[in-house]
Design a protein that fits this description.
This protein is an alpha+beta fold and 369 residues long. It is built from 10 helices and 21 strands. Helix 2 runs parallel beside helix 4. The chain is elongated. It comes from Rhizobium phaseoli.
Length: 369
């Protein structure tokens, strides 16, 4: 186990900056997931930690030692890639034990450690097979075994489940979490998949455009997103976001005429300002279209998810999702009413995209950053 300290780390390709000064402290034994869209810099950051990319500025320390000038093999990291990178002419046992063979470990010791790793990953029946004779999930476990056998201080996972089907991804997520619990090594996992991120992470690092937008537990990031980007990126369905103005009466006005009343203590400091109102789909409910205070909309389509469902509504072209656990008697084209939970409203500055803190929630100790 080893803590990792990332201090003002930058990366440029020629004159094009791609990482803009990342600061991050990772505790020993922590499981960190770096989440973000394609091109946000998450894999580049991981590769800089591994030593596969040179950093353009800043400092990376692993277990208290600055590693900027160290070769990848000297950093105590093991990396699991998206494409597995197995040797096709070697058996499973040979692939797992290759690093030990290169290091000059005696054959008897290699065999013992290969057996231990194979047992931990349920690969014992496949040790004499070659990668071509394995399923995608089995090949992924071999790649993990090859990393495990080195007994690294740090595990680095670069979107390792992207090539697997949905059912196998679920199984492998559970396997990776059990592996982390058993080994206790510091782990950093890169993904663009929100479900992977939310289920695996001790803490999430949400990246966008080469910067860190938010760091926090999955619960903190989901319930208290600190920027418009995080609010719209994390969550399925994404948070409902409506841009408008707080008028002199303290009412949020969007789409020129639609209105949502806000609590006085939140609206008073924001009169005349452009803001973005955000609300999770589960913080709204369906009511009669003529119910007092209801927002009227047209049902676009209903997304059935088994134990739950999402009604996707249309406000004259503006989308709004409502998540429900009960059955609904609504069909596409129906006029519906939507009641919202005013205590669950998030407000963001329209110009910066940063959260405008709720004074009531702040005084109650809510986490906003």
């Amino acid at each position: 186990m080893a803590p990792i300290s990332i201090r003002d780390v930058k990366k440029s390709y020629g004159k094009n900056p791609v990482i803009h000064g990342v600061d991050l402290e990772i505790q020993s034994g922590e499981f960190i997931v770096i989440l973000g869209p394609s091109g946000c810099g998450k894999s580049t950051l991981l590769r800089m930690i591994a030593g596969l990319e040179e950093i353009s500025g800043g400092e990376i320390a692993i277990d208290g030692r600055v590693v900027n000038q160290l070769e990848p093999r000297e950093r105590g990291c093991a990396m699991v890639f998206q494409n597995y990178a197995l040797y096709p002419h070697m058996t499973v046992a040979e692939n797992i034990g290759y690093a030990l063979k290169v290091a000059g470990v005696a054959k008897a010791e290699r065999t013992r450690r290969i057996g231990e790793v194979a047992k931990a990953l349920s690969l014992e029946p496949f040790l004499e097979r070659r990668p071509a004779a394995l399923s995608g999930g089995q090949r992924q476990r071999v790649a993990m075994g090859r990393a495990m056998i080195r007994e690294p201080k740090v595990f680095l996972f670069d979107e390792p489940l992207s090539n697997l089907d949905a059912k196998l991804r679920i199984a492998m997520r559970a396997e990776i979490r059990r592996l982390h619990r058993r080994l206790g090594a510091t782990s950093i996992f890169v993904t663009h998949d929100q479900t992977e991120a939310m289920t695996l992470a001790d803490r999430l690092v949400v990246m966008n455009g080469g910067t860190v937008e938010q760091v926090g537990t999955p619960e903190e990031v989901y319930h208290h997103p600190v920027s418009r980007f995080v609010a719209g990126f994390v969550g399925t369905p994404a948070m409902n976001l409506l841009e408008g103005t707080i008028n002199d009466e303290g009412v949020f006005v969007y789409d020129q005429s639609r209105k949502i009343a806000l609590p006085r203590e939140r609206a008073a400091p924001l009169k005349g300002k452009r803001v973005v109102l955000g609300m999770r789909a589960e913080a709204a409910r369906l009511v009669a279209p003529d119910a007092p205070g209801a927002l009227t909309a047209t049902a676009d389509f209903i997304e059935e998810l088994g134990a739950s469902r999402v009604v996707h509504a249309d406000f004259d072209g503006l989308p709004f999702a409502v998540a429900l656990t009960e059955a609904v008697k609504v069909k596409s084209g129906d006029l519906i009413g939507i009641a919202i939970d005013h205590s669950a409203i998030h407000l963001y500055a329209a110009d910066t995209g940063r959260i405008i803190e709720n004074p009531v929630m702040s005084s109650a100790g809510a986490v906003h950053a």
